[in-house]
Amino acid sequence: MEGHYLVGNQGVYKVQKLLGEGCFGKVAKCTKLGSQEMYAIKIIANVQEGKEEFESMKLIQVLDPEVNHLMKMYECFSFQNVICLVYEILEESLEDFLNKNECAATPLTYVRAIAQQMFQALKALKSIGVVHCDIKLDNIMFAEKKSLKFKLIDFGVAVETKELPIGAEIQATPFRAPEVILGLPLNESIDMWALGMVLACVYCGNYPFPDDYDYETIRAMVQIFGLPEEELLSTYYHSGVSRGERGQACVGILLNPSAAP
């Protein structure tokens, strides 16, 4: 892939280096011909998924990416049956940062900077009625490590708050909000929960709660925060709203602990 060219709407990009690869596709470090500027181009083989991510990015185009600590997108184009999204290039993710430091506890100055900047990002998203839905260590990156500048990235599953689905399996497991697990009504607070898990993880070097099984996660949460209001659980347990088998089971066990395995 190195040395290949991608023909976009705003210029021709030359692939310098592959930065990463996953189920979504590939991310390449590229230069634009006639310029020394570097870009991160996300190359998505599934055309529909690529178009959906572009539509998600359009939701936040009214927000200033610098003021609100959001990744900036320059353009989206189709080339040789793939979708290419051109983003600004950033440094490393919090996941990579922690791995390099062997998950050692991070100084409070870092935690404070992440918190302040991500609070601004979530405030901005809330102002336009958008939920990120996938806040995790991988999706917060250093924009400039020396000055502790961070940005929130990857809006591939972002949705309008009013479109949040009850019972859907959203958010990465270690950062999943309890109302998502239980199939309760959702709003932008699920992003705040996920950010709280990120901050705890960065500070301590470990995930705050076990994440192998939803019930174990909920049980650990209950030990710290106590049970949700029984009336709320009971209402949604008997409402007939689809929340998935696991969410239904977790609610049932919280209402009747003797039924736990």
Descriptive notes:
The protein is built from eight helices and ten strands. It has a six-stranded antiparallel beta sheet, covered by helices on one side. A two-stranded antiparallel sheet has the order 7-10. A two-stranded antiparallel ribbon has the order 8-9. The protein has helices spanning 47-59, 94-100, 108-127, 178-182, 189-204, 214-225, 230-237, 244-255, and strands at 5-7, 12-22, 25-32, 38-44, 73-79, 82-88, 130-131, 140-144, 149-152, 159-160. It has two domains: 5-88, Phosphorylase Kinase, domain 1 (2-Layer Sandwich); 94-210, Orthogonal Bundle (Transferase(Phosphotransferase), domain 1). It starts with a strand and ends in a 6-residue tail after the last helix.
Structural class: alpha+beta
Domain module tally? 2
User: Which strand-content bin applies to the residues?
Assistant: 15-25%
Mean pLDDT: 87
Helix content: 25-40%
GO cellular component, one term: cytoplasm
InterPro entries: Kinase-like_dom_sf (IPR011009), Prot_kinase_dom (IPR000719), Protein_kinase_ATP_BS (IPR017441), Ser/Thr_kinase_AS (IPR008271), Ser_Thr_dual-spec_kinase (IPR050494)
Pfam families: Pkinase
Domain Protein kinase: 13-261
Brief summary of the model shown:
Residues 13-261 form the Protein kinase domain. This is Protein kinase domain-containing protein. With 261 residues, this protein is α+β, with helices and mostly antiparallel strands.
Q: What structural keywords apply?
A:
transferase, Phosphorylase Kinase, domain 1, two-stranded antiparallel sheet, kinase, six-stranded antiparallel beta sheet, about 260 residues, nucleotide-binding, about 20% strand, 2 domains, protein serine/threonine kinase activity, Transferase(Phosphotransferase), domain 1, alpha+beta, globular
